[in-house]
Amino acid sequence: xxxxxxxxxxxxxxxxxxxxxxxxxxxxxxxxxxxxxxxxxxxxxxxxxxxxxxxxxxxxxxxxxxxxxxxxxxxxxxxxxxxxxxxxxxxxxxxxxxxxxxxxxxxxxxxxxxxxxxxxxxxxxxxxxxxxxxxxxxxxxxxxxxxxxxxxxxxxxxxxxxxxxxxxxxxxxxxxxxxxxxxxxxxxxxxxxxxxxxxxxxxxxxxxxxxxxxxxxxxxxxxxxxxxxxxxxxx
Length: 235
Known about the structure:
Number of helices: 6
Number of strands: 10
Structural class: alpha+beta
């Protein structure tokens, strides 16, 4: 039985760290989802209209993650958090490439709440999914590449066994963990901080789970991991 785990060392750095969790089993990601494209574009239009002259890095939640990256000795200018990268692309291009429905769904909710929303293919996990600091045996396969990378020592990552799923916390996802049209069982994490943005983390989690349940008529469960509850059963 696989679990989602946050290592004790993580809470030594971030005592108020939390992750909202959505697990969806039985999604059909091979077919377009009616109305999703319009929902996403409407959210993009709303964001760009409200932030035409704003510096994305100065948005409240984006700045929160930038400061967290610095605390982990990750340069947020060089290694941009996923939500900052997404909002900057949105602001610049005013549209996003269509990849598949689950990716579009993640982009929609990320832009709406200005929060990082990940997605991992559960069937590609080799063991528990953990958030921890790397060890010497961990390896990473960059998106679209065939050559394996060795992460930095003590790098903050999402990892399953010794397969790093996301480098530098929420910077870059691996090729072997990406969501494809064949992905059916999916783990969605929403990283946040108690007393900072956990209320929106929970709101996003609940809205996403209800959306998936109605759209796909599939099994969905939710969870919340923090210092007092450090693990959650995936399957």
